[in-house]
Design a protein that fits this description.
The complex is a heterodimer of chains A (321) and B (285).
Chain A (H helix, E strand, L loop, with lengths): L1 H13 L1 H33 L7 H8 L2 H37 L2 H4 L3 H4 L6 H40 L5 H7 L2 H32 L4 H19 L9 H14 L11 H8 L12 H4 L6 H23 L4
Chain B lengths: L2 E12 L2 E12 L3 E5 L6 H8 L6 E6 L8 H4 L3 E4 L11 H11 L5 H9 L14 H13 L5 E5 L7 H15 L5 E5 L3 H4 L5 E6 L2 E7 H7 E6 L1 H9 L4 E5 L2 E7 L3 H7 L1 E3 L3 H8 L6
Helix pairs in contact in B: 4-5, 5-6
The chains are: A mainly alpha (321), B alpha/beta (285).
């Protein structure tokens, strides 16, 4: 167990830039863009004398009914979780390229000879990399998003307090704890959902003699084209788009958080709640955990396990250093 | 004596060549074995087989383990330095020590730090900022702090200047080697290691052509320098090799009668490099 901890730590050392700094910088950029937008809005309103500022907002708040207040709370919640969108995309890209390089880069620079000179089994090595992609990267991304969301919330509260709105009232209308819990609750789901993609990318990384990226993309795409061309899926009463959606996309794009929403009907229903002043609905476990009932998820996990076993095997026999 | 490595009928074929051709040998504990051969003779393949880095046919036992299936167990007892560039470029000195200290049960951190204190390396330095010589110093510090029974060195001093090379072998002898440890080393810089070797193995075209200890080398092989008048007589005794120096001929004999040779001219023990050149004659022809 201690060895495994240090193996994961080693992955973090090597990929600090992708795992930590990429989300931090994305979050910072996100906050800066927001600050710039606020400044621009303030300048515009001051220049044109448009009375959306001033004491009017404070007056609106005092005269607001329950429904209006719920809307204000919803807006604050959106502010809280919106950074996750950008950070999630960046994290997906990081995880994709991390997996592709994870078992290839050290073969290319021959440092695999050093790693293999230590008493660590190939299985633990590969699993430490799986854990880094499926858990370490998303945990860091979520923590950064939460920090970013809280800063964003405080930022809005401060700006609005200049316009006579009680900052505390705004904060009590939002649901930061629920937002945090929802974001965190999606991490295990992400790990399970991303498994076939992590497995496939790492298999390519472990097996390819060169250009793992080409293998990872070309094999499923060429298969997809063959399937479409010959209509093989017709044999199983399925369309070729089923293959593209359930195989090609799953092995390549499942590393992007939220990609499960495309498949999951419950998740999409969650989106409807946006209209009911409940933007957190889309992320709440009530909706997202419906995915656990879908065979797509579990078949994907199974495929991921098989692909990872293949990556371990390649790690042992690939001998090109 | 107990054997550290026992190989029986070791064979490894690449696509169109035999890297190891039915090789059998035994390496005893407490020896320093030089595995020497021309480029492409199968040295590195043999080492990789011992380290469990490649598949092969035949029997191979390293410290009681089968390297093919028990590499992770085996590596608790075996250390390995390949030629210089294999430490990951991103790692820092501090991180390398922390990592090895925590995954290797036989690592002694104090020993490693004591060794590094004698170098210019600093804890925050990354491998990519180091010269080749410094990388080897770091690798050697890590390896010497591990209480292993077998150390495998594959061209460890390739591309290093003479100061680093001397220091490398000196550290190994003074601070590391003892009768419980075994070292297998391959190198092309034979002159630098011949005085530290206890055993010699020549490998050529995937076969072991000479497997002996250094004392026997002195008894078996003799070099004699003779004048032109004796050259024909010497040639009749079937020397392994003949070369000319300052108008005199130097002959290298395997198992010739020493008394006869002493009558012909000045007799001396051949160097490993002369022996190597004589044995490998015609390899690249």
């Amino acid at each position: 167990m201690k060895t495994f901890y240090w193996l994961v730590k080693r992955e973090f050392w090597e990929h600090r830039g992708g795992f930590l700094w990429a989300p931090v910088v994305t979050g910072a950029v996100f906050l800066i863009l927001n600050v710039m937008a606020i400044i621009a809005a303030e300048v515009m309103s001051a220049r044109h004398g448009v009375q959306i500022g001033g004491n009017d907002i404070g007056m609106m708040m005092r005269n607001a009914d329950a429904g209006d207040l719920a809307q204000v709370g919803a807006a604050a919640d959106v502010a809280m979780i919106s950074s996750m969108g950008m950070i999630g995309i960046v994290m997906g890209i990081v995880v994709l390229f991390y997996c592709l390089g994870s078992l290839y880069d050290d073969r290319r620079d021959r440092s695999v000879l050093f790693w293999k000179s230590l008493p660590v089994s190939n299985t633990s090595t590969v699993l430490s990399k799986v854990a880094s992609a499926a858990l370490v990267a998303p945990v860091i991304a979520v923590v950064v998003s939460i920090a970013c969301g809280l800063l964003q919330l405080i930022l809005f509260a401060i700006v609005l307090s200049f316009h006579g709105v009680n900052a505390w009232q705004l904060l009590t209308l939002s649901h930061p704890i629920r937002a945090i819990a929802s974001l965190v609750s999606n991490i295990p789901l992400y790990a399970l959902w991303a498994m076939p993609a992590i497995g496939w990318l790492m298999l390519c990384s472990s097996g390819a003699r060169s250009k793992p990226f080409l293998w990872a993309v070309a094999v499923p795409v060429v298969l997809g084209l063959l399937v479409s061309w010959f209509g093989i899926m017709g044999l199983f009463n399925l369309s070729s788009s089923w293959f593209w959606g359930n195989v090609v996309q799953r092995v390549l794009l499942s590393v992007f958080p939220g990609s499960s929403l495309v498949f999951d009907k419950h998740g999409l229903q969650g989106m409807n709640d946006l209209g009911d002043n409940n933007p957190l609905g889309a992320l709440s476990p009530d909706h997202t955990y419906g995915l656990l009932a879908s065979p797509n998820l579990w078949i994907g996990v199974l495929a991921g396990v098989v692909l990872i076993a293949g990556a371990v095997w390649f790690r042992r026999v690939r001998d090109d250093s | 004596m107990n054997a550290v490595v026992t190989a029986n009928g070791l064979t490894k074929a690449y696509k169109n060549s035999l890297a190891l051709n039915d090789v059998s040998f035994r390496i005893e504990s407490g020896r320093i074995v030089g595995l020497i051969g021309p480029n492409g003779a199968g040295k590195t393949t043999a080492l990789k087989a011992i380290l469990g880095l490649t598949d092969f046919k035949g029997e191979l036992n390293v410290l009681g383990f089968d390297p093919r299936t028990q590499r992770d167990k085996l590596m608790e007892q075996v250390c390995f330095i390949a030629d210089v560039a294999v430490l990951p470029r991103w790692i820092r000195v501090r991180e390398a020590i922390d990592f090895v200290a925590n995954v290797h049960p036989r690592f002694n951190r104090a020993k490693c730090e004591a060794f590094l204190a004698r170098t210019k390396l600093t804890p925050n330095q990354r491998v990519k900022q180091m010269s080749k010589g410094m990388i080897v110093q770091l690798h050697l510090a890590l390896v010497m702090a591990i209480d292993a029974r077998l150390l495998v060195l594959d061209e460890p001093t390739l591309g290093l200047d003479i100061l680093y090379r001397k220091q490398f072998y000196q550290s190994l002898l003074e601070d590391y080697f003892d009768e419980n440890k075994t070292i297998i080393v391959t190198t092309h810089q034979v002159e630098e290691i011949e005085h530290i070797l206890t055993d010699l193995m020549f490998i050529r075209d995937g076969k072991i052509v000479l497997d002996t200890d250094m004392d026997t080398v002195g008894e078996r092989f003799v070099e004699v320098m003779v004048g032109a008048d004796q050259a024909a007589a010497a040639r009749n005794m079937k020397p392994l090799d003949e070369r000319q120096v300052f108008g005199k001929s130097i002959f290298l004999f395997d198992g010739a009668d020493r008394a006869t040779l002493e009558r012909m001219g000045e007799v001396r023990r051949p160097t490993v490099s002369d022996l190597f050149v004589a044995t490998m004659k015609g390899t690249y022809a």
